[in-house]
Write a structure and sequence with these properties.
The protein is an alpha/beta fold. The protein has 21 helices and 21 strands.
Length: about 550
């Protein structure tokens, strides 16, 4: 009897302790989690630009007061926007979450698909029906936001915001309350009927302000004296920059954008003020949707798209890139100050990362005696067509060439009794004779490719039979699959795969983490902080060093 009583006392004590710990954990949960993705940010950008940033309260606030993970890599190919956003918020890789690219050739349907296209839904906020036929249905796994809502019977609010549709829809996940993106035809922030029947009145009111016209009136002028850019950047005007693809806008500073007012709202993607639009809309979202207003944790995802457009057009060593990041830093500082005031400094947790980085423009690299060149998918497709014709084979044996990936036409191959091995051998021998090609890999056997283990794993992580091609053409360092001018990304080299990662706010321990971590570690880290299940396809590990 005595033993029974003692056992009960111990049990009650342990139960009370566990309950106390649980209560303490609930008290440590932030009211709001903000997940920020900078579209096309290199890991070294903050170091390179730190001397030119006007404020200590933007990027430098995260670096100096938060946790900085300095060796964070992307664990798959192809390193492009949609898979990057998916990996950040699922903790998974294309092999499991299914988002193998921004678009892909579907081997089951024989059609090209866009990553977030959904013809069953309609636009809200714009008469442009094409731009709104979007949803997360092509994402195969759950996200942080999905698991957060599951943890409390869907009481949390989860909202995604970006200029790009894929930058808002994929991070927000399947069960999101809303996702908003920018329509370049109307100049509005829009959504789809996947989330709601119509835009909330506050969003309509925001669109009615026509803020983009005001941004165009401002133009794009330098933040610092031009001598700073002359000393620290490439020349202002270069033939290898694409500029704005618009004869109405001159190719160097200052950029006069007044001719675009009321006419060309697509140009907002390519100027720093695109970041301003996203943060202003985010503020309205927080206030009107009451995010972080109670003890139930909410999630807001933000993706800043303009660095990607600036990087593609002008390259990472341009005046435009430096000035774009100076202005983005000011936007972030303003937004962080807003969060401190609106949510409370000790009530939110934030992380900032990138979906991919960027290679130097080949013209810039060559000028500085670095190895570089272009080998675009269009040229690759022409070479393959010529190869097949020369060998008395039908050029239709190749269904598609996209982002250095070759898709076989398996139905035609079967009818002609041509095997994967035969076609692979022919193409491999031909392409590996090209000066810019490193190697051709048959994706199903990527584990056996004569490559470093890390690269083999990246190939395997990026492959799924339904949506991936049969062959991946690996290009030599500095060679990009891109435009005849401008920069691009998508490969395994560090200039594309080494990304920044900062954590800041409630529950985060200040300091540097200098060990290897991966993009897929972000979701389990936030899940651990919140005490929720990790997303369904998660393969990452929590970075425990950043958690208190």
């Amino acid at each position: 009897m005595r033993l029974f009583i003692l056992s009960m006392i111990c049990l009650l004590s342990l139960t009370a302790s566990a309950q106390k710990k649980q209560n303490n954990n609930s008290n440590t949960k932030p009211k709001l989690v903000i997940g920020i993705v900078i579209d096309q940010m290199r890991w070294d950008n903050v170091n390179r630009y730190s001397a030119f940033l006007k404020s200590k309260n933007g990027f430098l606030k995260l670096a100096n007061e938060g946790a900085s993970c300095n060796f964070t890599l992307i664990p798959y190919v192809h390193t492009v926007t949609a898979p990057g956003h998916a990996a950040v918020f699922t903790g998974s890789v294309p092999a499991l979450h299914g988002i193998v690219g921004n678009s892909w050739f579907n081997n089951l349907t024989g059609k090209t698909e866009y990553c977030v296209e959904d013809k069953s839904v309609s636009s809200i906020g714009s008469n442009n029906q094409i731009s709104g036929k979007m949803s997360p249905k092509n994402l195969w796994t759950s996200t942080i936001g999905d698991e957060l809502k599951l943890s409390n019977n869907f009481q949390s609010k989860v909202i995604g915001i970006s200029l790009k549709d894929r930058g808002s829809i994929i991070p927000a996940g399947h069960a999101a309350n809303a996702a908003y993106w920018y329509d370049g035809e109307s100049g509005n922030m829009i959504s789809s009927t996947y989330y709601q029947k119509s835009l909330p009145q506050w969003a309509t009111n925001f669109n009615n302000l026509h803020i983009v016209d005001e941004y165009y009136k401002q133009g794009w002028t330098l933040s610092l004296p031009k001598e700073v850019y002359e000393k620290n950047c490439d020349d202002d005007v270069n033939a290898y920059e694409t500029g704005f693809y618009d004869e109405k806008v001159k190719i160097n500073f200052p950029f006069d954008l007044t001719k675009l007012i009321g006419k060309d709202y697509k140009r907002l993607f390519s100027i720093p003020q695109g970041n301003n639009l996203i943060t202003e809309f985010a503020k309205e979202t927080i206030q009107n949707e009451h995010l972080g207003a109670d003890s139930i944790t909410d999630l807001l995802t933000l993706s800043f798209s303009t660095p990607d457009f600036i990087g593609h057009n002008f390259g990472p060593y341009s005046w435009e890139s430096l000035d774009g990041y100076i202005k983005l830093d000011e936007v972030l500082a303003d937004f962080f100050a807003y969060l401190d005031k609106q949510i409370g400094k000790d009530n939110y947790t934030l992380f900032l990362t990138a979906d991919h980085a960027i290679a130097p423009i080949p013209g810039f690299a060559k000028k500085n005696k670095l190895p570089a060149d272009y080998y675009v998918s269009a040229d690759l497709a022409k070479d393959l067509s010529s190869l097949l014709t020369t060998n008395n084979l039908k050029k239709e044996l190749i269904s598609s060439v996209y982002e250095s990936t070759i898709y076989f036409n398996h139905k035609l191959m079967d009818s002609l009794q041509i095997t994967d091995a035969q076609l692979t051998s022919l193409i491999t021998k031909f392409l590996e004779s090209k000066p810019n090609v490193l190697q051709v890999v048959y994706n199903r056997n990527a584990a056996l490719a004569p490559l470093p283990q890390l690269i083999r794993e990246m190939l395997l992580n990026g492959y799924t039979p339904q949506r991936s091609g049969d062959l991946t053409v690996l290009l030599k360092s500095g060679v990009i699959d891109g435009y005849p001018a401008g920069a691009s990304h998508g490969v395994f080299y560090n200039y594309d795969s080494h990304i920044p990662l900062y954590f800041y706010g409630k529950g985060i321990k200040k300091g540097n983490v200098n060990r290897l971590s991966y993009m897929t570690d972000i979701a389990p880290t936030i899940s651990t902080l919140l005490g929720i299940q990790m997303p369904s396809g998660n393969i990452g590990n929590p970075i425990l060093e950043v958690l208190k």
